[in-house]
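Justification of computing resources. Each target in the renewal requires a structure prediction run like the one illustrated here; the chain below, 268 residues long, is used simply to show the kind of job we budget for.
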Amino acid sequence: MFTNLSKTHKIIIQAVLVVFAVCWLYPLVVAVVQSLKIHGFGNYAAVMHHPKVNYFRVVFNSLLVAFATMIIVGLFATLGAYAFSKMQFKLKNVLFYSLVACLAIPATAVMSPLFFTMKSIHLMNTYWSLILPLAAFNAPFMLLILKNYFDGIPNAILEAGMIDGSSSFRMYRQIMLPLGMPAIINIMVLTFIYSWNDYIIPLLFVRKEAMYTVTLATQYFTGTTSQTPEMVAQLYAALILMTIPSVAIYMFGQRFMQAGLTAGAVKS
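Resulting structure tokens:
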């Protein structure tokens, strides 16, 4: 794409990219350096053996919630995108734009009704109280990404499937899912990261310490009135340790994310 650029333009682009890279990497470097102060890697050992935080338990809770949310969003987003992209039915555009309009509503604006809903159906302090709201908040955006991708799949392929006698569900399973796999992996990785990093939903619905996620567990490393240098170092070590799983998932799906985000942007 940039093969015809002059040398000056390439240098400017590279300089801008270096500036962005420094801005993004600087906080990470600071966190690593701060986590090694005072006691070095002993800060990481202190986090792993903290009397109030079971590191593996909070990581398990976050993994369970993030994976379950990812599966639910992946299932409903693919089915919805398939219907909105390739099927004709009444009120199709009204329904689609109503779902897209939900993106403009901030999650904090519906926290009170959501809280009373979860309480009335007795889901407080359960994993479903985290999974269901996270799936609902992530699904519209993922549906939008996936529909744009499915729009780029030629209708002639589906028409050939219909001539062969394939049902709608069979075409979804054997045509849309394989051809849409880059975008599907893209939305699933994004959903996992958003669910892993969410703080508001666990704070609102979880009271049991055994169900704390990584974002809630970090509060044990912050002082209420003052913080010693040892506490600061352990806080940074905790943040690094609790970020590792989500970074690993991102690194695994990064190449698919790039393909999925750009797919559907240009139509022939």
